[in-house]
Amino acid sequence: MRDQAPQSGIVFDVVPLHSKAPMHDLPDSQRHAFLQQMPKAELHLHLDGSARAETLIEIARAEGRAIPTHDPVELARLLHPGPGVSTLRDYLRAFDITVPLMQSEEAIERIAHELIEDCAMENHLYVEVRYAPVFLTAGGLTMEQAVRAVGRGLDRASTAFGVRTRQILCAMRHLPSSEGEAVVDLAARIGDDVGVGAVDLAGAEAEFPAELHRSTFDRARAAGVPRTVHAGEAAGSESVRVALTTLHAQRLGHGTALREDAALREAVREEGVVVEVCPTSNVQTGAVPSIEDHPAAAFLREGLRVAVCTDNRTVSATTLAREFDLLIRSHRLRLDEVRQLTANAFEGAFLPDAEREALVSRALAAFDDLVAACGLSSSR
Ligand SMILES: [Zn+2]
Asked: Which of 49, 173, 271, 326 could serve as a FRET partner for 90 with CA atoms 20 to 30 Å apart?
């Protein structure tokens, strides 16, 4: 595994920041250096929204496939919907460009590998990568071939960069439950071979309620396959309630609509359900009006197990360090709160218990070492 000792170049020559002080009080350059080095776990990251623009162009050229532009800067601009986008449906249009370029085993394996390389550059120790296998079958691959290709990319990257990885297989809300059931069956059959940590439900939340996928999630539960569900992003708190009570979700993707329902938040807190928040994505899809209005900090301060995530590194044009920084600046997160968010993310990992506990210990020790090495207070 990678050496987690902080690099000497980021030791700060500053008055120690008390753990209850807002990290906002640190100079920008020092806060950014800290966040870059901080050990991270990414729990909500879509493979097809996080490919490098340069790679997509190379794949289009090599495979003779259509792409709107061969200029990486222009392609990145097209993939990143920008501030004019206000609905999840608009946001998802970028995937009309990326998904057709992810139809060969070589392309899929490369994109998975490069995504972990990008995360490793930002000191991720753990990454869960998700996607809908059915979307990778338009070029003739079977779902199993696609999932195995992702698994090879993740495995190679895991070895090369020392990042523990898992994959999450998404069933799609707009497709019949037979699709989701096939995803669950695949996860149950080959999941151990290819590092499947869980199944997910993704796609048009407002139009296709979770009840339609009860059979898929019953099947997952019966097979012992863990479950997360996109809920409370493009629909209200009732959608979150159904994800928890009918689909037995163990984690929630987004969960922004929990802000409407104090009783449901209390249930989520009591159950210890990890909420995978994706602040920038939520602004882009119109789930929240601005980062300042994002409920992540309020949820955290109520005791919910919030984990900060990116959703899509390319389509949202963001990184995990940036998402932390946005929350710190907008909500004056304290050092101890950033540590809690870090703990929440590692504790939410879809890993066997013993491995997860060891990873949590290792990550928090690295966090505390970094705090000490940077001259920040490590007292809690
Ligand atoms: Zn998502």
From this structure: 326
233 is catalytic: yes
- Domain positions in the chain: 8-51+108-373
CA of 370 to the centre of ligand 1 (A): 30
pLDDT, tens digit, for every residue of 318-327?
A: 999 999 999 9
pLDDT tens per residue across span 284-319: 888 899 999 999 999 999 999 999 999 999 999 999
pLDDT digits (tens, 9 = 90+) for 96-110: 999 999 999 999 999
**For 56-73, what is the mean pLDDT?**
95
Calculate Rg over the CA atoms of the chain.
Answer: 20
For residue 182, what pLDDT is reported? 98
Report the alpha-carbon distance of residue 216 to residue 202 in Å, rounded.
Answer: 13
Question: What does the alpha-carbon distance between residue 291 and residue 313 come to, in Å, rounded to a whole number?
Answer: 17
Q: Which element (helix H / strand E) includes 197?
A: strand 196-202
CATH topology of domain 8-51+108-373: TIM Barrel (3.20.20)
Residue 357 tokens read as 């506990």
Place of tokens 């990184």: 319
Residue bearing tokens 């800067």? 73
Q: Which of 109, 205, 233, 337 is catalytic?
A: 233
Question: What is the 286 CA–ligand 1 centroid distance (Å)?
Answer: 14
